[in-house]
UniProtKB/TrEMBL annotation:
InterPro entries: Class-I_Pyr_Nuc-Dis_Oxidored, FAD/NAD-bd_sf, FAD/NAD-binding_dom, FAD/NAD-linked_Rdtase_dimer_sf, Lipoamide_DH, Pyr_nuc-diS_OxRdtase, Pyr_nucl-diS_OxRdtase_dimer, Pyr_OxRdtase_I_AS
Domain Pyridine nucleotide-disulphide oxidoreductase dimerisation: 346-453
MF terms (GO), sorted A to Z: dihydrolipoyl dehydrogenase (NADH) activity; flavin adenine dinucleotide binding
The name this protein goes by in its record: Dihydrolipoyl dehydrogenase
UniProt entry keywords in alphabetical sequence: Disulfide bond, FAD, Flavoprotein, NAD, Nucleotide-binding, Oxidoreductase, Plasmid, Redox-active center
FAD/NAD(P)-binding domain location: 4-327
Gene Ontology terms: biological process: 2-oxoglutarate metabolic process
Binding-site residues, NAD(+): G179, A180, G181, V182, I183, G184, L185, E186, E202, G271
Protein backbone atom coordinates (compact mmCIF):
# COMPACT_ATOMS: atom_id res chain seq x y z
CA UNK A 1 0.00 0.00 0.00
CA UNK A 2 1.49 3.37 -1.04
CA UNK A 3 1.71 5.72 1.92
CA UNK A 4 1.41 9.52 1.87
CA UNK A 5 1.51 12.28 4.47
CA UNK A 6 -1.56 13.78 2.82
CA UNK A 7 -4.15 12.44 0.40
CA UNK A 8 -6.40 15.13 -1.06
CA UNK A 9 -9.75 14.02 -2.50
CA UNK A 10 -10.78 16.40 -5.28
CA UNK A 11 -8.65 18.46 -7.66
CA UNK A 12 -10.68 21.71 -7.64
CA UNK A 13 -9.32 25.08 -6.48
CA UNK A 14 -9.50 23.95 -2.85
CA UNK A 15 -7.89 20.54 -3.36
CA UNK A 16 -5.22 21.28 -5.95
CA UNK A 17 -3.97 24.41 -4.17
CA UNK A 18 -3.84 22.55 -0.83
CA UNK A 19 -1.92 19.69 -2.50
CA UNK A 20 0.68 22.05 -3.99
CA UNK A 21 1.11 24.04 -0.76
CA UNK A 22 1.46 20.82 1.29
CA UNK A 23 4.16 19.56 -1.10
CA UNK A 24 5.95 22.91 -0.80
CA UNK A 25 5.91 22.40 2.98
CA UNK A 26 7.64 19.03 2.59
CA UNK A 27 4.72 16.60 2.79
CA UNK A 28 4.37 13.61 0.46
CA UNK A 29 1.06 14.28 -1.31
CA UNK A 30 -1.38 12.56 -3.64
CA UNK A 31 -4.44 14.23 -5.15
CA UNK A 32 -7.29 12.08 -6.39
CA UNK A 33 -9.62 13.44 -9.07
CA UNK A 34 -12.46 11.55 -10.70
CA UNK A 35 -13.65 13.87 -13.51
CA UNK A 36 -10.67 13.28 -15.83
CA UNK A 37 -9.39 16.86 -15.58
CA UNK A 38 -7.97 18.99 -12.80
CA UNK A 39 -9.44 22.35 -11.77
CA UNK A 40 -12.79 21.17 -10.42
CA UNK A 41 -16.06 22.99 -11.00
CA UNK A 42 -14.29 26.34 -11.25
CA UNK A 43 -12.04 25.62 -14.21
CA UNK A 44 -14.16 23.05 -16.01
CA UNK A 45 -17.77 24.20 -15.65
CA UNK A 46 -17.71 27.32 -13.47
CA UNK A 47 -15.63 30.46 -13.05
CA UNK A 48 -13.51 30.22 -16.18
CA UNK A 49 -15.95 29.11 -18.91
CA UNK A 50 -18.57 31.55 -17.59
CA UNK A 51 -16.13 34.45 -17.70
CA UNK A 52 -14.95 33.42 -21.17
CA UNK A 53 -18.54 33.51 -22.44
CA UNK A 54 -19.38 36.74 -20.60
CA UNK A 55 -16.40 38.35 -22.33
CA UNK A 56 -17.21 36.99 -25.82
CA UNK A 57 -20.90 37.85 -25.59
CA UNK A 58 -20.05 41.25 -24.10
CA UNK A 59 -17.87 42.08 -27.11
CA UNK A 60 -20.78 41.26 -29.40
CA UNK A 61 -23.24 43.35 -27.36
CA UNK A 62 -20.80 46.27 -27.33
CA UNK A 63 -20.92 46.43 -31.13
CA UNK A 64 -24.39 47.90 -31.00
CA UNK A 65 -23.24 50.72 -28.69
CA UNK A 66 -20.49 52.18 -30.82
CA UNK A 67 -22.45 54.85 -32.69
CA UNK A 68 -21.77 57.47 -30.01
CA UNK A 69 -18.05 56.85 -30.55
CA UNK A 70 -18.51 57.59 -34.25
CA UNK A 71 -18.05 53.95 -35.19
CA UNK A 72 -20.55 52.20 -37.45
CA UNK A 73 -20.64 48.42 -37.59
CA UNK A 74 -22.55 47.31 -40.65
CA UNK A 75 -22.76 43.56 -40.33
CA UNK A 76 -22.14 41.52 -37.25
CA UNK A 77 -22.98 37.93 -36.49
CA UNK A 78 -22.34 35.33 -33.84
CA UNK A 79 -20.69 31.95 -34.41
CA UNK A 80 -21.63 30.14 -31.21
CA UNK A 81 -19.47 27.14 -32.20
CA UNK A 82 -16.35 29.31 -32.48
CA UNK A 83 -17.19 31.05 -29.19
CA UNK A 84 -17.53 27.68 -27.45
CA UNK A 85 -14.30 26.42 -29.04
CA UNK A 86 -12.40 29.42 -27.62
CA UNK A 87 -13.90 28.73 -24.19
CA UNK A 88 -13.06 25.00 -24.40
CA UNK A 89 -9.45 25.68 -25.43
CA UNK A 90 -9.03 28.14 -22.57
CA UNK A 91 -10.40 25.58 -20.10
CA UNK A 92 -8.22 22.80 -21.55
CA UNK A 93 -5.05 24.90 -21.38
CA UNK A 94 -5.67 25.97 -17.79
CA UNK A 95 -6.55 22.49 -16.52
CA UNK A 96 -3.39 21.07 -18.16
CA UNK A 97 -1.43 23.85 -16.45
CA UNK A 98 -2.37 22.40 -13.06
CA UNK A 99 -0.98 19.01 -14.11
CA UNK A 100 2.27 20.79 -14.89
CA UNK A 101 2.25 22.48 -11.44
CA UNK A 102 1.68 19.08 -9.79
CA UNK A 103 4.76 17.65 -11.55
CA UNK A 104 6.82 20.71 -10.66
CA UNK A 105 5.88 20.42 -6.99
CA UNK A 106 6.02 16.62 -6.76
CA UNK A 107 2.29 16.01 -6.17
CA UNK A 108 1.10 12.58 -7.38
CA UNK A 109 -2.12 12.82 -9.39
CA UNK A 110 -4.24 9.68 -9.13
CA UNK A 111 -7.20 9.58 -11.48
CA UNK A 112 -10.34 7.92 -10.12
CA UNK A 113 -13.11 8.22 -7.57
CA UNK A 114 -12.11 8.07 -3.93
CA UNK A 115 -13.77 6.75 -0.82
CA UNK A 116 -12.58 6.47 2.76
CA UNK A 117 -12.97 2.90 4.09
CA UNK A 118 -11.35 3.90 7.40
CA UNK A 119 -9.48 6.84 8.87
CA UNK A 120 -5.96 6.66 7.46
CA UNK A 121 -7.03 4.87 4.27
CA UNK A 122 -8.29 6.04 0.88
CA UNK A 123 -9.66 3.70 -1.77
CA UNK A 124 -9.46 4.75 -5.42
CA UNK A 125 -11.72 3.26 -8.08
CA UNK A 126 -10.90 3.75 -11.76
CA UNK A 127 -10.84 1.86 -15.08
CA UNK A 128 -7.88 -0.20 -13.84
CA UNK A 129 -9.83 -1.41 -10.79
CA UNK A 130 -9.37 -0.31 -7.21
CA UNK A 131 -6.34 0.50 -5.11
CA UNK A 132 -5.76 1.44 -1.51
CA UNK A 133 -3.60 4.31 -0.23
CA UNK A 134 -2.39 4.88 3.29
CA UNK A 135 -2.73 8.50 4.44
CA UNK A 136 -1.51 10.18 7.63
CA UNK A 137 -3.99 12.98 6.85
CA UNK A 138 -6.99 12.95 4.48
CA UNK A 139 -8.35 16.19 3.06
CA UNK A 140 -11.85 16.14 1.56
CA UNK A 141 -12.25 18.81 -1.14
CA UNK A 142 -15.06 17.28 -3.16
CA UNK A 143 -16.88 20.53 -3.95
CA UNK A 144 -20.50 21.04 -4.85
CA UNK A 145 -23.17 20.42 -7.48
CA UNK A 146 -26.39 22.19 -8.54
CA UNK A 147 -29.35 22.06 -6.15
CA UNK A 148 -32.22 20.22 -7.88
CA UNK A 149 -35.67 21.82 -8.07
CA UNK A 150 -38.17 19.22 -6.86
CA UNK A 151 -40.34 17.88 -9.68
CA UNK A 152 -38.20 19.42 -12.42
CA UNK A 153 -35.78 17.09 -14.20
CA UNK A 154 -32.61 18.63 -15.64
CA UNK A 155 -31.97 17.06 -19.09
CA UNK A 156 -29.21 19.53 -20.12
CA UNK A 157 -30.98 19.88 -23.48
CA UNK A 158 -34.04 22.05 -22.71
CA UNK A 159 -33.93 22.22 -18.93
CA UNK A 160 -30.40 23.14 -18.00
CA UNK A 161 -28.09 23.42 -15.04
CA UNK A 162 -25.19 25.87 -15.27
CA UNK A 163 -23.17 23.16 -17.02
CA UNK A 164 -25.69 22.89 -19.86
CA UNK A 165 -26.08 26.67 -20.09
CA UNK A 166 -22.32 26.93 -20.67
CA UNK A 167 -22.50 24.59 -23.65
CA UNK A 168 -25.54 25.51 -25.79
CA UNK A 169 -24.87 25.25 -29.52
CA UNK A 170 -27.19 28.09 -30.54
CA UNK A 171 -28.79 31.20 -29.05
CA UNK A 172 -32.19 30.38 -27.51
CA UNK A 173 -35.16 32.60 -28.39
CA UNK A 174 -36.40 32.82 -24.82
CA UNK A 175 -34.33 31.59 -21.92
CA UNK A 176 -36.05 31.55 -18.54
CA UNK A 177 -33.65 31.52 -15.61
CA UNK A 178 -34.93 30.24 -12.27
CA UNK A 179 -33.00 32.05 -9.52
CA UNK A 180 -31.66 35.63 -9.54
CA UNK A 181 -28.43 34.62 -7.80
CA UNK A 182 -24.91 34.76 -9.12
CA UNK A 183 -25.20 31.96 -11.69
CA UNK A 184 -28.60 33.09 -12.94
CA UNK A 185 -27.43 36.64 -13.57
CA UNK A 186 -24.06 35.76 -15.11
CA UNK A 187 -25.31 33.04 -17.44
CA UNK A 188 -28.58 34.88 -18.11
CA UNK A 189 -26.54 37.84 -19.29
CA UNK A 190 -24.31 35.66 -21.51
CA UNK A 191 -27.32 34.63 -23.59
CA UNK A 192 -29.03 38.01 -23.35
CA UNK A 193 -25.88 39.66 -24.75
CA UNK A 194 -26.03 37.23 -27.67
CA UNK A 195 -29.61 38.24 -28.50
CA UNK A 196 -31.82 35.89 -26.48
CA UNK A 197 -34.80 37.21 -24.56
CA UNK A 198 -33.95 36.31 -20.95
CA UNK A 199 -36.45 36.35 -18.08
CA UNK A 200 -35.19 35.75 -14.57
CA UNK A 201 -37.78 34.32 -12.18
CA UNK A 202 -36.89 34.77 -8.52
CA UNK A 203 -38.60 33.50 -5.38
CA UNK A 204 -37.67 36.55 -3.27
CA UNK A 205 -38.74 40.13 -3.95
CA UNK A 206 -35.15 41.14 -4.71
CA UNK A 207 -32.16 39.88 -6.67
CA UNK A 208 -28.82 38.70 -5.24
CA UNK A 209 -29.78 37.83 -1.66
CA UNK A 210 -26.87 38.43 0.68
CA UNK A 211 -25.67 41.51 -1.24
CA UNK A 212 -26.31 44.97 0.25
CA UNK A 213 -29.94 45.83 -0.65
CA UNK A 214 -29.24 49.30 -2.07
CA UNK A 215 -26.48 47.91 -4.27
CA UNK A 216 -28.68 45.00 -5.42
CA UNK A 217 -31.33 47.54 -6.52
CA UNK A 218 -28.73 49.51 -8.51
CA UNK A 219 -27.55 46.24 -10.06
CA UNK A 220 -31.09 45.24 -11.01
CA UNK A 221 -31.66 48.61 -12.65
CA UNK A 222 -28.41 48.36 -14.65
CA UNK A 223 -29.05 44.76 -15.70
CA UNK A 224 -32.64 45.58 -16.74
CA UNK A 225 -31.32 48.46 -18.83
CA UNK A 226 -29.08 45.95 -20.63
CA UNK A 227 -31.96 43.63 -21.42
CA UNK A 228 -32.57 41.18 -18.55
CA UNK A 229 -36.24 40.92 -17.53
CA UNK A 230 -37.09 40.14 -13.91
CA UNK A 231 -40.14 38.47 -12.45
CA UNK A 232 -39.61 38.63 -8.68
CA UNK A 233 -41.65 37.12 -5.87
CA UNK A 234 -42.56 34.08 -7.96
CA UNK A 235 -42.12 30.37 -7.49
CA UNK A 236 -41.86 27.92 -10.37
CA UNK A 237 -44.20 25.06 -9.55
CA UNK A 238 -43.74 22.94 -12.66
CA UNK A 239 -42.52 22.80 -16.26
CA UNK A 240 -44.34 21.06 -19.08
CA UNK A 241 -42.95 20.23 -22.49
CA UNK A 242 -45.38 21.37 -25.19
CA UNK A 243 -45.29 21.35 -29.00
CA UNK A 244 -44.03 24.97 -28.89
CA UNK A 245 -41.36 24.39 -26.27
CA UNK A 246 -41.65 24.69 -22.50
CA UNK A 247 -44.46 26.05 -20.37
CA UNK A 248 -43.60 27.06 -16.82
CA UNK A 249 -46.25 27.22 -14.10
CA UNK A 250 -45.53 30.08 -11.69
CA UNK A 251 -47.07 31.09 -8.41
CA UNK A 252 -47.03 34.75 -7.37
CA UNK A 253 -46.10 34.33 -3.76
CA UNK A 254 -47.67 37.48 -2.26
CA UNK A 255 -51.00 37.03 -4.07
CA UNK A 256 -51.14 33.23 -4.32
CA UNK A 257 -52.21 33.59 -7.99
CA UNK A 258 -50.99 31.38 -10.82
CA UNK A 259 -49.33 32.40 -14.08
CA UNK A 260 -47.65 30.70 -17.01
CA UNK A 261 -44.52 31.57 -18.94
CA UNK A 262 -43.39 30.15 -22.30
CA UNK A 263 -39.73 29.42 -22.94
CA UNK A 264 -37.57 27.37 -25.25
CA UNK A 265 -34.82 26.79 -22.63
CA UNK A 266 -34.86 26.95 -18.84
CA UNK A 267 -31.81 27.35 -16.61
CA UNK A 268 -32.25 26.15 -13.02
CA UNK A 269 -29.83 28.12 -10.79
CA UNK A 270 -31.18 27.98 -7.25
CA UNK A 271 -27.97 27.29 -5.36
CA UNK A 272 -25.48 24.48 -4.90
CA UNK A 273 -25.14 21.58 -2.48
CA UNK A 274 -22.05 19.74 -1.24
CA UNK A 275 -20.82 16.57 -2.99
CA UNK A 276 -20.17 13.92 -0.36
CA UNK A 277 -22.05 10.82 -1.46
CA UNK A 278 -19.92 7.72 -2.01
CA UNK A 279 -17.16 8.86 0.34
CA UNK A 280 -18.41 6.67 3.17
CA UNK A 281 -18.87 9.54 5.64
CA UNK A 282 -21.82 7.91 7.43
CA UNK A 283 -19.95 4.74 8.22
CA UNK A 284 -16.93 6.73 9.39
CA UNK A 285 -19.08 8.93 11.64
CA UNK A 286 -18.09 12.23 9.98
CA UNK A 287 -20.65 14.86 11.10
CA UNK A 288 -22.54 16.79 8.46
CA UNK A 289 -25.09 19.57 9.01
CA UNK A 290 -28.78 19.49 8.06
CA UNK A 291 -27.95 20.54 4.46
CA UNK A 292 -25.21 17.94 4.07
CA UNK A 293 -22.18 20.25 4.47
CA UNK A 294 -19.30 18.63 6.38
CA UNK A 295 -18.85 20.19 9.81
CA UNK A 296 -15.32 21.35 10.60
CA UNK A 297 -13.60 23.28 13.39
CA UNK A 298 -11.27 26.27 13.05
CA UNK A 299 -8.49 23.92 11.85
CA UNK A 300 -10.75 22.32 9.20
CA UNK A 301 -10.80 19.09 11.22
CA UNK A 302 -13.94 16.96 10.91
CA UNK A 303 -15.39 14.97 13.78
CA UNK A 304 -13.06 12.07 12.84
CA UNK A 305 -9.35 12.53 13.71
CA UNK A 306 -7.07 12.71 10.67
CA UNK A 307 -9.87 13.72 8.28
CA UNK A 308 -10.16 17.37 7.20
CA UNK A 309 -12.50 19.19 4.79
CA UNK A 310 -12.39 22.49 2.89
CA UNK A 311 -14.04 24.49 0.11
CA UNK A 312 -17.57 24.15 -1.19
CA UNK A 313 -18.29 20.96 0.79
CA UNK A 314 -18.03 22.80 4.14
CA UNK A 315 -20.27 25.67 5.37
CA UNK A 316 -19.37 29.18 4.17
CA UNK A 317 -19.19 31.13 0.92
CA UNK A 318 -19.02 28.83 -2.12
CA UNK A 319 -16.23 30.62 -3.94
CA UNK A 320 -13.03 29.44 -5.60
CA UNK A 321 -10.76 31.89 -3.80
CA UNK A 322 -12.33 30.96 -0.45
CA UNK A 323 -11.69 27.26 -1.18
CA UNK A 324 -8.06 28.11 -1.97
CA UNK A 325 -7.66 30.08 1.28
CA UNK A 326 -9.18 27.16 3.21
CA UNK A 327 -6.79 24.71 1.54
CA UNK A 328 -3.64 26.70 2.20
CA UNK A 329 -4.60 27.47 5.83
CA UNK A 330 -5.51 23.82 6.48
CA UNK A 331 -2.22 22.33 5.30
CA UNK A 332 -0.15 25.13 6.84
CA UNK A 333 -1.75 24.35 10.22
CA UNK A 334 -1.07 20.63 9.66
CA UNK A 335 2.63 21.44 9.39
CA UNK A 336 2.58 23.69 12.45
CA UNK A 337 2.50 27.04 10.63
CA UNK A 338 0.28 29.82 12.05
CA UNK A 339 -2.60 30.35 9.62
CA UNK A 340 -6.21 31.42 9.56
CA UNK A 341 -8.90 32.60 7.15
CA UNK A 342 -10.84 35.79 7.91
CA UNK A 343 -14.20 35.04 6.30
CA UNK A 344 -15.33 38.63 6.87
CA UNK A 345 -12.84 39.82 4.28
CA UNK A 346 -13.59 37.26 1.55
CA UNK A 347 -14.78 39.32 -1.44
CA UNK A 348 -17.62 38.24 -3.72
CA UNK A 349 -17.86 39.38 -7.32
CA UNK A 350 -20.69 38.92 -9.81
CA UNK A 351 -19.04 39.27 -13.22
CA UNK A 352 -22.03 40.72 -15.05
CA UNK A 353 -21.94 43.98 -16.98
CA UNK A 354 -21.76 46.00 -14.75
CA UNK A 355 -19.92 43.98 -12.13
CA UNK A 356 -21.22 43.70 -8.57
CA UNK A 357 -18.54 43.37 -5.90
CA UNK A 358 -18.71 43.28 -2.15
CA UNK A 359 -16.77 42.57 1.00
CA UNK A 360 -17.70 42.57 4.67
CA UNK A 361 -20.97 43.67 6.23
CA UNK A 362 -24.08 44.86 4.42
CA UNK A 363 -26.06 47.86 5.73
CA UNK A 364 -28.96 45.51 6.56
CA UNK A 365 -26.68 43.27 8.68
CA UNK A 366 -25.28 46.28 10.58
CA UNK A 367 -28.79 47.58 11.28
CA UNK A 368 -29.99 44.18 12.41
CA UNK A 369 -27.04 43.77 14.76
CA UNK A 370 -27.56 47.31 16.11
CA UNK A 371 -23.97 48.25 15.15
CA UNK A 372 -23.26 51.98 14.95
CA UNK A 373 -21.90 52.95 11.53
CA UNK A 374 -21.22 55.75 9.10
CA UNK A 375 -21.61 55.36 5.35
CA UNK A 376 -20.40 57.02 2.18
CA UNK A 377 -21.40 56.66 -1.45
CA UNK A 378 -20.11 57.90 -4.76
CA UNK A 379 -21.79 57.46 -8.11
CA UNK A 380 -19.77 56.57 -11.20
CA UNK A 381 -21.82 59.22 -13.00
CA UNK A 382 -19.58 61.78 -11.28
CA UNK A 383 -16.32 59.93 -12.05
CA UNK A 384 -14.48 61.28 -15.06
CA UNK A 385 -12.94 57.95 -16.11
CA UNK A 386 -16.37 56.29 -16.00
CA UNK A 387 -17.68 59.15 -18.15
CA UNK A 388 -14.79 58.76 -20.61
CA UNK A 389 -15.31 55.03 -21.09
CA UNK A 390 -19.10 55.37 -21.12
CA UNK A 391 -19.61 53.19 -18.03
CA UNK A 392 -21.46 55.49 -15.67
CA UNK A 393 -23.95 53.02 -14.14
CA UNK A 394 -23.42 52.17 -10.51
CA UNK A 395 -21.72 53.44 -7.38
CA UNK A 396 -19.26 52.65 -4.61
CA UNK A 397 -20.66 52.39 -1.09
CA UNK A 398 -18.57 52.09 2.06
CA UNK A 399 -19.68 51.30 5.60
CA UNK A 400 -17.47 52.03 8.58
CA UNK A 401 -17.61 52.20 12.34
CA UNK A 402 -17.88 55.74 13.81
CA UNK A 403 -14.05 55.77 14.23
CA UNK A 404 -13.74 55.13 10.50
CA UNK A 405 -12.68 51.46 10.54
CA UNK A 406 -14.07 49.84 7.39
CA UNK A 407 -16.83 47.31 8.05
CA UNK A 408 -18.00 46.66 4.50
CA UNK A 409 -17.76 47.91 0.94
CA UNK A 410 -20.06 47.37 -2.02
CA UNK A 411 -19.68 48.31 -5.66
CA UNK A 412 -21.82 48.14 -8.77
CA UNK A 413 -19.92 49.28 -11.81
CA UNK A 414 -17.43 48.50 -14.54
CA UNK A 415 -14.28 46.88 -13.10
CA UNK A 416 -15.93 46.64 -9.66
CA UNK A 417 -14.35 43.20 -9.25
CA UNK A 418 -10.90 44.76 -9.47
CA UNK A 419 -11.73 47.89 -7.47
CA UNK A 420 -12.86 45.81 -4.49
CA UNK A 421 -9.27 44.55 -3.96
CA UNK A 422 -8.22 47.89 -2.44
CA UNK A 423 -11.08 47.70 0.05
CA UNK A 424 -10.32 44.05 0.89
CA UNK A 425 -6.73 44.97 1.68
CA UNK A 426 -7.88 47.96 3.72
CA UNK A 427 -10.28 45.80 5.74
CA UNK A 428 -7.68 43.07 6.22
CA UNK A 429 -5.24 45.60 7.62
CA UNK A 430 -7.85 47.36 9.78
CA UNK A 431 -7.54 50.57 7.73
CA UNK A 432 -10.01 53.44 8.07
CA UNK A 433 -11.96 55.38 5.44
CA UNK A 434 -9.60 58.26 6.28
CA UNK A 435 -6.56 56.08 5.40
CA UNK A 436 -8.06 55.43 1.96
CA UNK A 437 -9.21 59.02 1.52
CA UNK A 438 -5.69 60.25 2.25
CA UNK A 439 -3.97 57.90 -0.20
CA UNK A 440 -3.33 59.27 -3.67
CA UNK A 441 -5.51 57.74 -6.40
CA UNK A 442 -4.55 58.19 -10.06
CA UNK A 443 -6.63 60.53 -12.18
CA UNK A 444 -8.69 59.78 -14.15
CA UNK A 445 -9.44 56.32 -12.73
CA UNK A 446 -12.44 54.36 -11.57
CA UNK A 447 -10.58 53.93 -8.26
CA UNK A 448 -11.15 57.62 -7.51
CA UNK A 449 -14.78 56.64 -6.83
CA UNK A 450 -13.52 54.48 -3.94
CA UNK A 451 -11.62 57.42 -2.52
CA UNK A 452 -14.63 59.74 -2.97
CA UNK A 453 -16.97 57.26 -1.24
CA UNK A 454 -14.57 57.25 1.72
CA UNK A 455 -14.43 61.06 1.68
CA UNK A 456 -18.24 61.10 1.60
CA UNK A 457 -18.37 58.92 4.73
CA UNK A 458 -16.27 61.61 6.43
CA UNK A 459 -18.40 64.48 5.09
CA UNK A 460 -15.52 65.68 2.87
CA UNK A 461 -16.59 64.59 -0.64
CA UNK A 462 -15.17 66.88 -3.31
CA UNK A 463 -16.98 65.80 -6.45
CA UNK A 464 -20.42 64.92 -5.10
P1 LIG B 1 -14.82 21.90 -6.84
O1 LIG B 1 -14.25 22.94 -7.70
O2 LIG B 1 -16.24 21.52 -7.05
O3 LIG B 1 -13.89 20.63 -7.04
C1 LIG B 1 -14.17 19.40 -6.45
C2 LIG B 1 -13.55 18.32 -7.29
O4 LIG B 1 -13.64 17.09 -6.57
C3 LIG B 1 -14.28 18.07 -8.61
O5 LIG B 1 -13.38 18.17 -9.69
C4 LIG B 1 -14.84 16.66 -8.49
O6 LIG B 1 -14.80 15.93 -9.71
C5 LIG B 1 -13.90 16.04 -7.48
N1 LIG B 1 -14.49 14.95 -6.71
C6 LIG B 1 -15.69 14.96 -6.06
N2 LIG B 1 -15.87 13.77 -5.42
C7 LIG B 1 -14.77 13.03 -5.67
C8 LIG B 1 -14.36 11.73 -5.27
N3 LIG B 1 -15.12 10.96 -4.48
N4 LIG B 1 -13.17 11.26 -5.74
C9 LIG B 1 -12.38 12.03 -6.56
N5 LIG B 1 -12.72 13.27 -6.94
C10 LIG B 1 -13.89 13.77 -6.50
N6 LIG B 1 -16.43 31.01 -7.80
C11 LIG B 1 -15.67 32.14 -7.83
O7 LIG B 1 -14.95 32.41 -6.86
N7 LIG B 1 -15.67 32.96 -8.91
C12 LIG B 1 -16.44 32.71 -10.00
O8 LIG B 1 -16.41 33.48 -10.96
C13 LIG B 1 -17.25 31.56 -9.99
N8 LIG B 1 -18.02 31.26 -11.05
C14 LIG B 1 -18.78 30.11 -11.03
C15 LIG B 1 -19.60 29.86 -12.13
C16 LIG B 1 -20.39 28.72 -12.14
C17 LIG B 1 -21.26 28.44 -13.35
C18 LIG B 1 -20.34 27.82 -11.05
C19 LIG B 1 -21.13 26.55 -11.07
C20 LIG B 1 -19.53 28.07 -9.95
C21 LIG B 1 -18.75 29.24 -9.93
N9 LIG B 1 -17.95 29.56 -8.84
C22 LIG B 1 -17.20 30.71 -8.86
C23 LIG B 1 -17.88 28.70 -7.65
C24 LIG B 1 -16.59 27.84 -7.71
O9 LIG B 1 -16.59 27.08 -8.90
C25 LIG B 1 -16.52 26.94 -6.50
O10 LIG B 1 -16.65 27.71 -5.32
C26 LIG B 1 -15.17 26.22 -6.45
O11 LIG B 1 -14.98 25.45 -7.61
C27 LIG B 1 -15.10 25.32 -5.22
O12 LIG B 1 -13.88 24.66 -5.20
P2 LIG B 1 -13.71 23.24 -4.49
O13 LIG B 1 -12.28 22.86 -4.71
O14 LIG B 1 -14.24 23.29 -3.13
O15 LIG B 1 -14.68 22.25 -5.30
P1 LIG C 1 -27.35 31.62 -5.30
O1 LIG C 1 -27.49 31.13 -3.92
O2 LIG C 1 -26.39 32.70 -5.60
O3 LIG C 1 -28.76 32.11 -5.86
C1 LIG C 1 -29.87 31.29 -5.93
C2 LIG C 1 -31.10 32.14 -6.12
O4 LIG C 1 -32.19 31.30 -6.40
C3 LIG C 1 -31.45 32.95 -4.88
O5 LIG C 1 -31.71 34.28 -5.26
C4 LIG C 1 -32.70 32.24 -4.34
O6 LIG C 1 -33.58 33.10 -3.66
C5 LIG C 1 -33.31 31.73 -5.64
N1 LIG C 1 -34.20 30.58 -5.49
C6 LIG C 1 -34.04 29.51 -4.68
N2 LIG C 1 -35.07 28.65 -4.86
C7 LIG C 1 -35.85 29.18 -5.82
C8 LIG C 1 -37.04 28.76 -6.47
N3 LIG C 1 -37.60 27.60 -6.15
N4 LIG C 1 -37.60 29.55 -7.40
C9 LIG C 1 -37.01 30.75 -7.73
N5 LIG C 1 -35.89 31.20 -7.15
C10 LIG C 1 -35.31 30.42 -6.23
O7 LIG C 1 -27.02 30.30 -6.16
P2 LIG C 1 -26.46 30.11 -7.61
O8 LIG C 1 -26.69 31.33 -8.44
O9 LIG C 1 -27.02 28.82 -8.08
O10 LIG C 1 -24.91 29.96 -7.36
C11 LIG C 1 -24.42 28.90 -6.52
C12 LIG C 1 -23.09 29.25 -5.94
O11 LIG C 1 -22.10 29.35 -6.93
C13 LIG C 1 -23.14 30.56 -5.19
O12 LIG C 1 -22.94 30.27 -3.83
C14 LIG C 1 -22.02 31.37 -5.72
O13 LIG C 1 -21.20 31.81 -4.68
C15 LIG C 1 -21.25 30.43 -6.64
N6 LIG C 1 -20.95 31.19 -7.85
C16 LIG C 1 -20.09 32.24 -7.77
C17 LIG C 1 -19.85 33.02 -8.85
C18 LIG C 1 -18.95 34.18 -8.71
O14 LIG C 1 -18.27 34.27 -7.70
N7 LIG C 1 -18.88 35.09 -9.68
C19 LIG C 1 -20.47 32.77 -10.15
C20 LIG C 1 -21.39 31.66 -10.12
C21 LIG C 1 -21.59 30.91 -9.00
Amino acid sequence: MTAYDLVVIGGGPGGYVAAIRAAQLGMTVACIEGRGALGGTCLNVGCIPSKALLTSSGKYAALSNLAAHGIAVEDSSVDVGAMMARKDKLVGDLTKGIGFLFKKNGVDLIEGWASIPAAGQVKVQNDQGSSLLEAKHILIATGSEPTPLPGIAIDEVDILSSTGALALDSVPKHLVVIGAGVIGLELGQVWSQLGAKVTVVEFLDRILPGIDGEIAKLAQRALSKRGLKFQLGRKVTGIEKTAEGLELALERIAKGTEETLQADKVLVAIGRLPVTSGLGLDALGVSVNARGFIEVDGRFATSVPGIYAIGDCVPGPMLAHKAEEDGVACVEMLTGEPAHVDYNTVPGVVYTNPEVASVGQTEEALKEAGTAYISGKFSFMANSRARSIGETDGAVKVLASPDGTLLGAHIVGAHGGDLIAELVLAMTKGATVDDIARSCHAHPSMAEAVKEACLDALGRAIHA
